[in-house]
Amino acid sequence: MSIWLSPDELARTRPAETLGETPIPTRVVSNGEYMPWAQTAAQRRVEHELRSLADACCGRLGMDRRGFLRTGAGMAAAFLAMNRVFGPLFAVSPAEAMEPAAADERTKALQHQFIFDVQTHYVRDDFAWQGILELGEYAKRWNPVLREEGVTMRRYQLQNYLKEIFLDSQTTLALVSSAPSDDPANTILSSDEMARTRALVNAIAGSRRLFAHGVVRPGRPGWLDDLDRTAEQCRPDSWKGYTVGDPLSPSKYPWRMDDEKGVYPGWERIRKSGIRTVCVHKGLVPPDYEKTFPNWQFAKVDDVGKAARDWPDLTFVIYHSGLKPFLTSPDESLAEFERTGRIDWVSDLADVPAKYGVTNVYAELGTSFASSAVTHPRHCAAMLGILVKGMGVERVLWGTDSVWYGSPQWQIEAFRRIEIPDDLQKKHGFAALGPADGPTKTAILGRNAARLYGLDVAAQALAGDGIAIARRAYEAAGAERTNLAYGFVRA
Predict the structure, then answer these.
(1) Which domain holds residue 66?
(2) Which of 388, 412, 383 is nearest to 398 (CA)?
(3) DSSP letter (8 states) at residue 402
(4) Could you tell me if 105 and 126 lie in one domain?
(5) For 171-227, what is each residue's pLDDT tens digit?
(6) Residue 324 vs residues 304, 320, 341, 349, 364: alpha-carbon distances, Å
(7) CA distance 223 to 91
(8) Contact 34, 325 (CB under 8 A)
(9) Model confidence over 293-305: pLDDT tens digits?
(10) What is the rounded CA–CA span in Å between residue 203 and residue 212?
(11) pTM of the model
(12) Residues 447-484: b if buried by 16+ CB within 10 A, e if exposed
């Protein structure tokens, strides 16, 4: 988990898991890569509407509010509340909130939809960087359990990761990722650890459920030899790099994707390895990035086009789609889009295929979708429209950046239900996203990633594997999804 927050910024946050549990976060949850902005007036209205809906439904159903909000009907109520505040951007019927059977019927109808989450995270069991554990000290102020039990990282570790990803959500396949660090002790997961996790999970499943990254570290001493070793010994499914260098602290090793002298030798090694998909973190700079984040220029997407054109046999996946995130309030950011038809850096990325004549660049939605869907879904819809129009629907990938945000199921439901408003479609030439199981959403949720990673979806025999058996047992035991998020919100 990337921590760019200063001690002063940390003092102005609180752990997201100390908030009340709602099916959809009602304030921005940061994974630590940026300062979360304050809850908006609209989000407070969503909370109020959701409480009113929940109280009206749960009393009639003989449930308490918390129990109701953990059900499919509670999830539906959350989208109804969103529509009351932001307008009808999410497809949801009042019957789904009033009748749990109706919500369950919809969930079951989509339970076999193929979902490939290409950005997920957990931390190794012995990860103990004080900069992250220090956040737990803040949590003690609000969470008496932590005062009694002490600060732990269990919610970010493998056991909870597997529960949140494979049991509490309808995710079919996942790719586990990591980040580089100038200090080896701060490495969340090494390439070897990701490869071992992949082997363990897939052995338990008896199928190919988990994929793994290999970390790319341009500029570090011996980085080219490390590429060769990782390719040979770990056989990652794809690579992951951060052009800002170490996202945990000011790095000595930022780099550009189009650096012919410093980076292209690595692209040549990757080409020769045969593992030719390179995922690159872009965007997500802190609000005052020009003053506090010295390597912020490297987070831009202005190096993507040339690299893609120069290396046509590599595929570059731009994580977070380059979203900055918002540097002003969501309303102001949306107003800027309404005036210009552009979203900073996202639009620049969407311009790359036409500007450079390339087809080997993909956009990934992790954090960008989650954060914009809960601040202003109209802005989120605009972002999706820009990406689909510029990149082509076949080059947009589903990623959630979980487990930082808890179970990814709320994000899955939000994406299944969201639609681009008619006025934006007409004004900007955006195509409709369509129904949850329509061609556009089906492609983005999993089919595009399956094609990228060489999978035949029809040939995936997953219905009887170990994960499927565990999921059925989990549901039969009456387990309910938690609505906790594991990040930071503005205090």
Answers:
(1) 7-111
(2) 412
(3) B
(4) no
(5) 999 999 999 988 877 788 999 999 999 999 999 999 999 999 999 999 999 999 999
(6) 16, 9, 16, 12, 14
(7) 48
(8) yes
(9) 889 999 999 999 9
(10) 14
(11) 0.87
(12) bbbbebbebeeeebebeebbbbebbeeeeeeeeebbbb
